[in-house]
Design a protein that fits this description.
Helix content: 40-55%
Distance between the termini: 80 Å
Strand content: 15-25%
Radius of gyration: 36 Å
Order of helices and strands: HHHHHHHEEHEHHEEHEEEEEEE
Number of helices: 11
Number of strands: 12
Number of domains: 3
Structural class: alpha+beta
Low-confidence stretches: none
Mean pLDDT: 89
């Protein structure tokens, strides 16, 4: 026949009654206090993570414990004896007794009975528990109460040590390539693997339900590290999803679609990028006939503005990085390279500024409309970096793309 499950109200009544029944200095006082310690564990089992019941319960218990303070200290020492004497068949009872001592110590910190269980008694209990763990090993996983906190290492020392030391950093942003870290989940900060898994599931679901673009990265870490000051998932959830503090990024609006000219804008950026690269090759051929060239990068379409969940707000374009090597292996002074290339640029409509730098390394800035060009001349090598105009796809029916002036 299954034993009855008591309610919080019943357990609080039992706990108060057993304390009130104790007479200080009598043999039965220790028995009553041991019963109270047991009720305390049962209460935490019904309110995991929530602490003791609110109301007059704590005030009443503190008054009774203060009346029985000396007896409570003795009862705590008896619990240590019970831990030391427990055999294999009472292994879980010994670990439960250690949890009872910890609850007494933690639940009434800051009250009139703070320190009622002396530090020496707790140290003796730890020593006794370690001896039991060494003798009998950790408690079976199915025997580990789900409610005990991570700090009760006597239950979880081996259990949690088997968990991977894994930390996951969660990032959110307004585009997949523009996310920032906002919180982390350290698996070993949870007392059970399934609690860590539940936290991951809850976090991912909460971000997805609210429409945030997110990504995550996992790595070996430590539950004792702060990871650059990132909050935990629970802290992040409380601050932003419960208290309503604003986030630095916006969620994707429901039903969001690309602007009507989005594909046309990207096609235009690719077309102009290829045409600009061909023009640079022509410039090289005119300024440095026969010189070898090298394309370092043709980067585009690329975003030149902050990422936005509203794509019509973003500015896009391309950047080209190419090199030419005048002199076919001979060292050509940078001033000669600049004198060769600037007139060619000017004939093609570029406005070039004065060369700046030193005789062995010169820089020239040029512009043509919304295009920008930086020329870096070194002995035997000239680098051209071109930034395109800033393209935008308006969110208007029938619109394609526009070029926005530089600010």
């Amino acid at each position: 026949m299954a034993s009855r499950q008591f309610t919080v109200e019943e357990l609080t009544r039992f706990a108060v009654r057993t304390l009130q029944s104790a007479e200080p200095g009598t043999p039965r006082a220790d028995t009553h206090l041991s019963e109270f310690f047991d009720y305390l564990v049962d209460l935490h089992a019904l309110t995991p993570g929530g602490g003791l019941p609110a109301g007059d319960f704590v005030l009443t218990v503190v008054a009774e414990l203060n009346r029985l303070r000396r007896d409570a200290g003795i009862a705590a020492e008896y619990l240590v004896d019970a831990i030391e004497q427990a055999g294999w068949d009472r292994h879980e009872d010994a670990l439960r007794a250690r949890s009872a001592l910890q609850y007494v110590n933690d639940d009434f910190a800051g009250t009139a009975v703070a320190g009622m269980v002396e530090a020496e008694t707790l140290a003796d209990a730890d020593e006794a528990v370690r001896a039991k763990l060494e003798q009998y090993g950790p408690a079976d996983a199915e025997e580990v109460p789900a409610f005990v906190p991570v700090s009760h290492w006597w239950w979880d020392s081996s259990f949690r040590a088997a968990m991977p030391d894994w930390v996951t950093v969660y990032r959110i942003g307004e585009a997949p390539d523009a996310v920032r870290p906002v919180f982390c989940i350290a698996d070993r900060s949870y007392s059970r693997p399934w609690l860590a898994e539940a936290a991951h599931s809850e976090a991912s679901a909460a971000l997805a339900e609210r429409g945030f673009i997110s990504s995550l990265t996992g790595f070996e870490g430590s539950a004792d590290s702060s990871f650059g000051g990132l909050p935990t998932w629970e802290q992040f959830r409380q601050r932003h999803f419960v208290e309503g503090a604003p986030l630095p990024v916006r969620p994707v609006p429901p039903g969001q679609e690309d602007p009507p000219g989005w594909d046309a804008m990207r096609a235009e950026i690719l077309r102009v990028g290829r045409a600009t690269l061909a023009e640079l090759e022509d410039i090289f051929g005119e300024a440095f006939p026969g010189a070898p060239t090298q394309v370092n990068s043709l980067d585009g379409p690329r975003r030149f503005s902050p990422a936005s969940v509203y794509k019509h707000e973003e500015l896009w374009g391309f950047r080209i990085n190419v090199m030419v090597f005048p002199g076919a292996g001979d060292d050509v002074p940078p001033p000669d390279e600049v004198r060769a290339v600037v007139p060619v640029l000017q004939r093609r409509g570029w406005t070039a500024g004065a060369a700046e730098g030193s005789p062995d390394k010169l820089r020239v800035e040029a512009a043509r409309g919304e295009f920008r060009l930086s020329v870096f001349a070194e002995s035997g090598a000239v680098t051209f970096i071109v930034d395109s105009p800033r393209y935008r796809a308006p969110d208007e029916p029938g619109a394609t793309w526009v070029i926005e002036p530089r600010s």
